[in-house]
Amino acid sequence: MKILINALSGNGDALMFSPSLRILKEKFPVSEIDMLVMFRSVKEMYESSPFLNKIHFINFLKQSKLKSLSEVRNLKNYNYDYSINVYPANRAEYNILNALLGAKTKIAHHYTHTNFGRLEFMNDILINEIKDRHNVLQNFDLIRSVENIGELNDDDAGKMEIFISDKLNHDAQEFITNINPENKLLIGFHPGSSLLKNHIHKRWDKNKYAEAGNRLMKDHNAKILLFGNEFDLNNEINSMMNNNAVIASTDNFMDSIARMKHCRLFISNDTAFMHSAAALDIPVVGIFAYTNAKELYPWKTKNMVVRKELSCSPCFYNSPKPATCIFQGSEEFKCMKTIEVDEVMEAANKLIS
Predict the structure, then answer these.
(1) 2-151 is classed in which CATH architecture?
(2) How does the average pLDDT of the chain come out, rounded?
(3) CA quadruple 37, 40, 45, 48: dihedral sign
């Protein structure tokens, strides 16, 4: 059997397919399972996976449509039995792509918030999206449609997985030894977020991150590691902590992940770094605004979610539309703005203790 996994979204969404990937390989050990990605960081994240035969990288965002179409057409020569659109992927373009790949059976989701223009009918099997169901399990529902996979229970969905090479582990250990000779408690922060779909509003206030960092350093003799490629933001937060933190990320996503592995707590907005920390079994404080924490909480790791229970939230659905808010002015995105440092510190202290 030949299966193609279309992991065309970012690292967080792609990572939440990893429990399903393991199950596919366990159920069909002699199958050929490939992955199609359009972000280099997703390719880096899955390069060491023992469950994939090959990864196809097509740079849809930075090359001509003609070149992309040619590369997609070449994939038809692999004669895949199944092609699966990783959840969430509800743009019309994803469904067109799945059709162009020419697999015998094309699997995707039917979304709650959708319309005829999303072209879901171009797939052969559509799985109904279920509100408040974790993304890991939404992906699990996709692979249940593969013939002869047998009965799968939700409990069969294991942890998310990232495989780190020996070289990256070695380099990360050297980095940690150099920046933490006192062997302090290492706590990771990810204060950034994607800018796509107006998701800058996922970010907790930088001043509050700095205050939380200063309190953690004082109360727990901790060292704060700042992650993410938002280097200007991280440097600004570090300056508010008297430059006592460490910029831990590089331009390579897996460098960052190998270093993150040494943290004993991770505090993050709803981002790929939050999900990566969960995959590494690090306790996580997840700071949520308008996205659905029931669907996106840190999977199968000790965690505490900090959010505001507003009548309007969560209000962001899996849609191509950008995030918007019913409030204006200083009230806009108050679901994030009104989260206080004491709330995050309470969660952090519980996980540390």
Answers:
(1) 3-Layer(aba) Sandwich (3.40)
(2) 97
(3) positive
